Amino acid sequence: MGDLGLVPWLISFAVFFVFPFWRILGRVGFNPVFSLLALIPGGVLILLWVVALAKWPVLPEVKKDKAPADPPSPPALPGPDQTP
């Protein structure tokens, strides 16, 4: 009978850690199944490092080799009349 007291704690732990990671990983473009790593000891830390340091597939890649286009120069303003 003492083992049944552990089951609600395990379920609440799974809901408390797995569900948020499932949503976060799905939104940033990773496979949400990786959120099950939160069930193993140290898995939460692994997930945090992966999310923090990996390139997110959802974000578009910015090409760094292409220089930004220069904005057009403003039209020249007419100067004062310089009559000698």
Short description:
The protein has 2 helices and no strands. The protein is mainly α.
Could you characterize what this model shows?
- The chain is mainly α and 84 residues long.
- The chain has helices at residues 6-28, 43-53.
- Helices cover 40% and strands 0% of the residues.
- The longest helix has 23 residues, at 6-28.
- The mean pLDDT is 79.
Helix percentage: 40-55%
Fraction in beta strands: under 5%
Distance between the termini: 109 Å
Determine the structural class based on helices, strands and strand pairing. mainly alpha
Average the pLDDT over all residues and give the rounded result.
79
Largest beta-sheet details: none
Radius of gyration: 28 Å
Q: How would you summarize the topology of this molecule?
A:
Layout: H1 6-28, H2 43-53
